[in-house]
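Throughout this chapter, every protein is written as a compact record of paired, labelled lines. The reader may check this reading against the record printed directly beneath this paragraph:
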Amino acid sequence: MNHPASGDPAARTCRLCGCVISGLQFSGAPDGYCCEGCFLAERKQRSLAAALDEAQFALAEALAEALDAREGETGLHSKRVACHTLVLAKHFTDDPQRLHQVYWGALLHDIGKIGIPDSVLLKHGSLNDAEWTIMRGHPQIGHHILANAPFLAEAAEIVLSHEERFDGTGYPRGLAGSAIPLWARLFAVIDTLDAITSDRPYRRGASFKVARTELLRVSGTQLDPIAIEVFVAEEATLREMVETKCNAAAVESTPAAAWRTSPPATGQ
């Protein structure tokens, strides 16, 4: 606590509410005094915001783990693609709040599958046309879920756009190029990387080397060339992260064609 400078009228005015200060005052900042009421309110808000961040992360990660479990994933898929997407996103922003949105959007990219019936989501074998129509509704379902939470507004746009393709052949809106949100374009690279390097019931996960070749091949069609450039710039970091996931068990000899000719590996 500090006494305002005697005889200085400006020092006797709260910088937050403008009230005239008397007695002992809290300063806490070089740009002027604030009254005790504003000081305590500011600290309360700061503490609640910090606690809310933790609660938000816990809620988002719990939802992602629940969905991963429903689909038979290990529970780490969603966290993995979220962390990997941040590696690319940091090339474009260092704003913590924006990075939070990127993390949540990537983490909850498939949250809309909560609204997909088990008969479709967990079906063994290929989906028929009617079932694909149902499945392709999951980005919009996910967007609707997240858009109702104000702190997930930007993340909701990633969820809505995560199945779009750079050449406009994706869904649900058929967006192309820069019309697709940047964060969704970055996520698409990471989601494809994770799909290729992860084990599936019908094949072993391929190596980072095989995945890299395939990502470069679809640059400009499925994936944004700018996002691919950032991927290449972060290759060492992402390779280490992928190899940690695979525990060096990825199959170097698996050709890229092996996963391309199998059922879709990009989470569709």
